[in-house]
Design goal:
The complex is a heterodimer.
Chain A: H1 13-37, H2 42-65, H3 79-113, H4 120-125, H5 127-145
Helix pairs in contact in A: 1-2, 1-5, 2-5, 3-5
Chain B: E1 13-14, H1 16-22, H2 27-34, H3 38-46, H4 53-63, H5 67-70, E2 71-72, H6 79-84
Antiparallel strand pairs in B: 1-2
The chains are: A mainly alpha, B mainly alpha.
């Protein structure tokens, strides 16, 4: 079975949930920067890269904290982890569908109601955010829902 | 991954913590013996996860006990009470 060095703080659910929120705040910040300003401005580009890197670090920490059950090969997981993984992917798919539907609905209504819309090339660039969302959601759902994990492998 | 509302009725009670402590095993030792992650042993012991029949049999074989001595749908009496209770 998979053995990983678990970051101690993230054994608890509440710090993990805080990390999930941080991860998506960073992702949203990066996507919003690209949507509003594009890649043309060097400062914006650096801020985008910084938010993307921090988001990736947060995601990696979360993945380690739940023993990477969302991305690990199925053969390395036990029966409980496989059930947790299936639940995480199902919830992630529902979440992604909601996000895509909301974006589609906004793009549909914006011209009719005079709301702001980014130029097409910036919207394509911001697809990066959706790709990262799709990749990270199963791990984030697992990190959000897994109970407080056991610290020790000893006799306790 | 724990039980949700409505799943409480299907929760299994177990004696895994007592059996493991009696034999001086860590969660990792037991996990290695039955082929699961050590976190899963914690889930089982807390009653947050009910094992498959296959895993229950593996645990039963490892401890050399019948499944009903290890898992129950109703709470177990303390072992001391079962062993030493005086008839009234």
């Amino acid at each position: 079975m998979t053995r990983t060095a678990l970051p101690t703080l993230t054994l608890l659910r509440s710090p993990r949930r805080a990390l999930v929120i941080t991860q998506y705040a960073l992702l949203l910040t990066g996507s919003a920067l690209v949507l509003v300003f594009g890649y043309g401005n060097l400062t914006v580009l650096l801020l985008f890269i910084l938010s993307a890197l921090l988001s990736a670090v947060t995601h990696t920490t979360l993945a380690l904290s739940v023993q990477n059950i969302a991305q690990a090969r199925v053969e390395t997981l036990d029966e409980r982890q496989r059930i947790a993984r299936d639940r995480a992917f199902a919830a992630a798919l529902r979440g992604l569908t909601v996000c895509l539907s909301a974006a589609w609905g906004y793009a549909l209504l914006a011209p009719l109601l005079g709301w702001w819309l980014p130029p097409a090339e910036r919207a394509w660039a911001a697809l990066w955010g959706l790709a990262m969302l799709a990749y990270s959601l199963p791990t984030s759902v697992a990190a959000w829902t897994e109970a407080d994990l056991d610290r020790e492998r000893s006799l306790a | 991954m724990g039980f949700k509302k409505g799943e409480e009725a299907t929760r299994l009670h177990n004696r895994l913590p007592v059996l493991r402590a009696e034999r001086g095993l860590s969660r990792q030792d037991l996990a290695d013996a039955v082929g699961v992650n050590y976190q899963t042993i914690g889930y089982l012991e807390r009653g947050d996860y009910s094992p498959s029949l296959e895993l229950a049999f593996r645990l039963s074989e490892f401890f050399g006990l019948p499944i009903e001595a290890m898992f129950s749908r109703v709470p177990f009496r303390p072992l001391s009470a079962e062993l030493y209770a005086r008839p009234r």
